[in-house]
Amino acid sequence: MSIRSEIKYLLSEENSSITKLAEQLSEVTGKKYTMKSLSQKMKRNAIKAEEYKLIINILGYDIKLVKKK
Questions:
Q1: How far apart are alpha carbons 44 and 58 in whole angstroms?
Q2: How many CA atoms lie within 13 A of 43 on its CB side?
Q3: CA distance 19 to 5
Q4: Are residues 58 and 21 in contact, defined by beta-carbon separation less than 8 angstroms?
Q5: For 28-67, what is each residue's pLDDT tens digit?
Q6: Residues 31, 25: contact at Cβ < 8 Å?
Q7: At residue 67, what are phi and psi to the nearest 5 degrees?
Q8: How many C-beta atoms lie closer than 10 Å to residue 62's C-beta?
């Protein structure tokens, strides 16, 4: 699953939108995020690891790394 698909899936699970996520990212980081800029970043697969961690945190999830068996 791509990062874009994953974020869109989590947004739907949380009954949220890219617009609301962009507003929350702006509040947390102090940088200007818009629905359009965030959507374009997701389309280009240009989400940075730190942004991804913030997005996951904002949506109320944790990232868990599990050793392969």
A1: 21
A2: 7
A3: 16
A4: yes
A5: 999 999 999 999 999 999 999 999 999 999 999 999 999 9
A6: yes
A7: -65, 135
A8: 7
Sign of CA dihedral 13, 19, 20, 22: positive
pLDDT score of 1: 80
The one-letter amino acid code at 53 reads K
The residues, ordered by sequence, that sit 6+ positions from 14 with a Cβ below 8 Å of its Cβ are 59, 60
CA-to-CA distance for 16 and 10, rounded, in angstroms?
8
Q: Do the beta carbons of residue 45 and residue 2 sit within 8 Å?
A: yes
DSSP state of 1: -
* Amino acid in the structure at residue 25: L
